[in-house]
Fold this protein.
Amino acid sequence: MLKPKKVSMALLLGNKKLLDQAVETLHDLNCVHIVDFTEETDFLSIGRPTEVASDASNKLIKLRSLSNFLGIKQKYSDNPLNEKSLLNEFDAKMDELDSAVSKLLERRNVLENEIKNIEIHIHDLQPLSLFPLNIEMYSGYKSVSVRAGYIQGDHVDIETEIKNVTTKCDISFCAYNKTNVITLFSPVELTNAISEILERYNFSEIHIPELTGDPEKLLAGFNNRKEDIQSELESLENAISELQTRYSEFILASDEILSIITQKAEVPLRFATSENTFIIDCWIPDDQFDNVAQVIKDRFNTSIFITKLDIEKEEIKTENIPVEYDNPELVKPLETIMDLYSRPMYKEIDPSTIIFITFPLFYGIMLGDIGYALVLLTLGMIGKAKIRSEGLKPLATLLIYCSISTLIFGILFAEIFGFHLFGPHTVVLELFGEHSALGEMFSNFHALPILERLGREDIPILLIATALIGVLHLNMGFLLGFRNEVVSHGVKVAVLEKISWIVLQLGIALAVLSAFEYIPVVGKTVGAVVALLGVVMLIAGEGGAAILELPSILSNTLSYTRLAAVGLSSVGIAFAVNEIVTGMLFPKGGLFILLGIIVLLVGHTINTVLGVVAPGLHALRLQYVEFFTKFYHGGGRKFDPFGYTRKYTEEK
Amino acid sequence: MAFLIRRGSKKYPYITARVRAMKSKLIPKEVYPKLMNMDIPEITRLIGESEYKQDVDELAQRYSGLDLLEHALNQNLARTYRKLLRVSQDEPNFLITEYLRHWDIWNIKTILRGKYYGAPAQEILDAVVAAGQLGYRELTSIANMESIDDIKTALTHSPYYAAIAEYEGGELSVIENELDRIYYSRLLASIGKSKGEKLSLKYIRTEIDLKNLKTLFRTKKAGLEKDEILNLVIPGGMELKSGDLKRLSSLSWPDFLKGLEDYSYWSDISEVVREDMASLMDVEAVLDKYAMGYATRISHYYPLSILPIYDYMLRKNNEINNIRTIVRGKKVKLPDEIIRKHLVM
Amino acid sequence: MVDISIADATVEQILANQKGLIAIGAGLAVGLSGIASGIAEKDIGAAAVGAMAEREELFGKGLILTVIPETIVIFGLVVAILLLFL
């Protein structure tokens, strides 16, 4: 429970001729973690993929390209396809799909190009349509140069300037889109002189399209065509999404099968091979080793040799041993939290079970409200039922754990949506009236709250209590750290590095207790001596720099007061919303009641969201930053068995 | 208070952390021996399962086989560099932009070289990497031009026009050197005096040294005269100042090799430098490796600077070169040992 | 402005005055420590988001690193609560 699953190291050795069958067997077993062979020598080299790899890869490239084009998304399939029949019809279906897609693609390209051209034409024609001339009138002269374009500045100025150069010209202006459009017919020999003037007014030329006819009619024609194309493009998109629905299953299933084929075909790249033999270096869960050995023996008799190696003797580095969690079903959702940080190393304590308790505990202390707890519980239940993604499911379960803890603390704090549950002025009284049976029962109930967060008397107690929780949590960390150090570096180091902190705390505790006169005055001196002993041990263990670490014991402990502080901020928001509504809005009556209800809903929705996020992050942080740093290293490698978990297909 | 807020405004934390994460996704060196045992489709598929997915998926509609892989590599490189530009701001963005201009140089060289050998436009475009200021469209239109004059006109406004203004076709090595010189002098001139910019000089001036060393080796071996050599080297290096370059270029081949012993690069190249070496391939490989190692080393000293980004850019380019070496080697059926020798890891 | 000199002030006024000062102190404790942790978190947060943009699995580490300085504001809050309630 507190340790990863035990694995043993194994070596498989056999004749190369049996390689394919061996691969099949291992793939079916789906419990062997293969270690990649990397150090090539004169005798041993990395194996080569089997022939099918190349062909399957080609198919996969094509398939994935089509899948990308159609925008196929991973989804959950309820009726897996049969592998054999799928492979039989694969080529035919692929051709069908490929030609359908390339037809669509081709047509789309054509249309997109045309629409681009049309847009250019429309862009040019729009200003020209303001003038009465047909398009062909703008070109084809020998002695007349025609210019059309956008221009900035006062058109009278421009006109006079040009008229100064020549009067043998025809100038027209039109206002268009906040600028002026000019058309200008002038003698060819004056082109340069006129250009100069135009330049000064930031002239930018309109390209005259090679068309004939009335620009307005042309424009209308182009706009019609553009609409046609757009609707055709839309129908193409529809055709694409139709293909997507029709072929989605086929693509996902084929991808899966081909992936399995290439996975098997390329696995020799992870083996060591000599001329005639192959060697597979692997890890097998201890409890499955006998089964694996038996299967190999049954299928290959003695022609493939399997043996267990001694981890200690082989001097394997712990970071190279793959780690598989070994936790009860209830604790499994917490593994997500572990992976978010880092998987434990093989010889480390796996703290999943501990955070199974402490994470919801901290969460509950912070949120601690019956109302929010019930909302979150419902959300968690819905999530658990609806979510199918393996990655998110644990989070829904975690939410349920946290909401249960929140419910318990909500009862202890006697809070519901930031209202008092018991005593005078509570929701119950507001709803049922002071003299109803229920109202009297709730207002006269005094056993709860154990701690009252809505008043101010209990706050210091809450702060001290959370700091004490911190002391307990931290020391649990030190003890776990002690155990980890004993395993990795021996008892002496473990005592000096971890127990020293506990000694230091004892010393401080003695001194503080005697300072407040809970114990005789001698305690002060004894405490100081004990604390000093702790410091000396620490320096002996971790060196002089450890002195810099000393204040962390204080800051870490104080850090746990966030359990109270974050909770208070959540209560504060709820309280504020309630006060606004019950104190200010409801008494005014009428429409304000409606407004009050809206404020209530919005306020508490926001607070619920904050209530998931803030306590979640802070509970996480207390685990990761305060707790884990005392004992946890992480960095373990995931146990990744050679095999495939099929989603879209089945073998038979 | 203001100084506290402003200090981070150079926007390095985001981009350097992101680049580090990108660096961790580069192909690890244990994978190269596996790639060598794979066929081209397998390699394409494998890289298409990671960082190259978008490129392979898109291009597989149009290309297949080796073409697909080569295009995917090029497109990915350009895309990666453009992504760096997109996700960076302020000073890092400026420095990346300036540094990436060497792809403009590369592309101009590629096009001119392609034209010189009469390669079709499509083949030239296969080799360009649109990571600089010249976009792929511009490059396409330039590559499609027939005459050198048209190309020159198209590049009139580029800062590199000076290098090609006189070019009338024919031998390219002078132009290529001139392009490099313009690139580096502009780069050195554009980089200002802020602390972050000075750090970038640290790497760039070393890169100039390494480039000059390559030039010196090549020209010395070919027996060029001092003046000719001095025309080819790039001023502004870190250790090889103009005095050093003058001295080294006037020495005879054996004395030149001895002269190099005074510089810090010697410890890295001494192993492969022989007076009677037949090819300079080993030396150049070592110098390339040195550039990468140097960038990595100094990026550890200045984690919040442009240096980790340079380091990544070099390594990404190297990854692509390595894959290309493997697949091209495979295509012409080179023995594994030779391919392995060409890989820089 | 109401002119209050200490000599003329009643006991109630002085107490109210002290209460106000305590509230200002508490406000400063939360506000300043909030600014401080904000400044400290700014670059870490930017870096964490940068790393996460490339590798989503760094979410956990990024989160932890980002929230480390926020201990400062928690201390501020605790100080404020102590000021107000003790």
User: Anything to note?
Assistant: Chain C has a mean pLDDT of 82. Chain C touches chain B at residues 35, 39, 42-44, 46-55, 58 (CB under 8 Å).
